[in-house]
Design goal:
Helix content of chain A: 40-55%
Shape of chain A: elongated
Mean pLDDT of chain A: 92
Distance between the termini of chain A: 8 Å
Number of strands of chain A: 4
Strand content of chain A: 5-15%
Number of helices of chain A: 5
Number of strands of chain B: 0
Largest interface: A-B, 71 and 73 residues
Largest sheet of chain A: 4 strands, antiparallel
Distance between the termini of chain B: 18 Å
Mean pLDDT of chain B: 89
Strand content of chain B: under 5%
Largest sheet of chain B: none
Order of helices and strands of chain A: EHEHHHEHE
Low-confidence stretches of chain B: 1-11, 466-490
Radius of gyration of chain B: 24 Å
Shape of chain B: globular
Radius of gyration of chain A: 25 Å
Helix content of chain B: 55-70%
Low-confidence stretches of chain A: none
Oligomer: heterodimer
Strand order of the largest sheet of chain A: 2-3-1-4
Chain lengths: 178, 490
Amino acid sequence: MSKTTKWGIIAEFESAAAIFKAAEKTTAQGYTRVDAHTPFPVHGLNGALRQGPSPLGWIVVCCGFTGICLAQLMMWWMNGHDYPIWVSGKEPYAWPPTIPITFECMVLLSAFGAVFGMFGLNRLPRLHHPLFSHSTIWRASDDRFFLSIEATDPKFDSQQTKHFLESLGGKHVEIVEG
Amino acid sequence: MTATAITVVDEPENPLRRAPLIEGKNDFASVTNIIAGVAEKKTPRGWYLMFGISVALFLNLFAMIGYLVFTGVGVWGNNVPVAWGWPIVNFVFWIGIGHAGTLISAILFLFRQKWRTSINRASEAMTIFAVMAAGIFPAIHVGRLWVIYWVFPVPNQMALWPNFKSPLLWDVFAVSTYFTVSALFWYVGLVPDLATFRDRAMRAGRTVASRIYGAFALGWHGSNRHWLHYEKAYLILAALSTPLVLSVHSIVSFDFAVSQVPGWHTTIFPPYFVAGAIFSGFGMVLTLMIPARQWLGLHELITLNHLDNIAKILLLTGMMVGYGYGMEFFIAWYSGSEYEQFCFINRATGPYWWAYWIMLTCNVVSPQLFWFRALRRNPMVLFVISIVVNIGMWFERFVIVVTSLNREFMPSSWGYFTPTLIDILTYAGSFGLFFTFFLLFCRFLPILAISEVKGVMPQANPHHGHDAHGGGHAHAVHDAAHTPAGQGAH
């Protein structure tokens, strides 16, 4: 990072109720690149921030379906095609005994999809984030609630946005660079 | 956030007025302090003592496995007719214990049982370590440990693939999937709390700790967009783990049920194994959580109500297991199969009668004490019964494995199984592994789910105590149903 640029502005709020109201008012003012940083998921906040639902379910469905197909392909090819084994007169490939392993593979790949899909959608892991330079942001994992507005927001203006957040009751309103 | 005094309201007759999940004058910061404090305080001397014993037992496990590998499975008591001795008993015992952790983290989550938040983290850790202990036994039981990779679908020198029709192979897939998914679920839950630990270590100037916690926290900064995907992932993992946990012990029971041995070849095995697994797992949760609560000062977070709930689950699953025992006898009689009938008469009155009656007393009789509320809320009684339950559930697996095999179809091959010292030391070693990891977990990681505990506190509701917000009233009514009397600010 050669030249520092403004990343955005961050304000601290005291309670879940305060961040909820602040989020509602900020989005009502027309700000779009708004996010909250909270120690636990505050329910209903995504509505106040106008954030859409998570598409993670679709990723998981695709992974689960892949798991089913791969498991079936593996068992059919290995036991039925490549090296057929006849055990106690049962057919080399028959679908009923394949169900347990098919199920397990579906669950395994779906779980990978859920976990790695979630980290992917969240752009994690990352080593640093500009908002970590805010003076009290460490409390976002303890007992405080933060509202951030990014500098790329069309309505963003260093002075006005700062006043606006202060008028909502935000403390430690700081512009962070990154 | 001001600390709110919460009075304990115990009105079991009025479910609308529930006792708070978290007791005492706690706010978000104090919850963080209590949980993070466990890992930040100076290591207590008792911890070193317990850790020393656990590590010694763990090293003994390595020695036993080494001896086994260099000598052969003859070092155990396993021999025809009882070719499945203690190793399989121990495998089923440990994997069963793991199931309670998944039940708490997944099934109780789907049922919206908020009290789970205080015990889910430690229970999930218990699951992972129990599955590790479990996995060792079938692996060393194969005899030639160095060709264990034959159970995996990878090319080998015989150009032969595993037989996917065998329940033993289903077990390989079930247990490895179970371990992987449990570990992922646990880690996902840990990430926000590791961020808390990172931030606290940073503030306290503990650079190394903050780097390590920071690396595992993956740069988590509690963004609402992150929480959105995170909660979805959590829900999906819970929805995946629920059928998974039921499938794992069902498949473990298939190891027995798919065979034709009298006493094993029954359709009741999958549900009966799952109920037994949950029963034993909750027993172990109590065995671990009661001392942890006492020694680490977590009384306000793990309350008597939590212990009471666990005792109720023990009572329920204990009776399900008892029903299983009864139904096995009924079906043996009803089937008209001589071998089946003999097997069960032999179980209760044969050479292993003592094991059968220990099992029955521990698993069916002892939980009946939990009909009494005073006993459900007495940590000492709970702790003793939890040990009794652990013993009883080990004996259940011993009864299933040994009494079914020792007098099979052919009287000429009947025999009596006796464990060797190596059997006993190997089993003791598995406890060493389990407790070594569990103690490390208690020392270095958040043993309660910090963000989840905060999420069930009344202050976490954005409409808590603020009715000015439009549309807040509907939430307020809903809120009142979940918060205790004295919290009704609405």
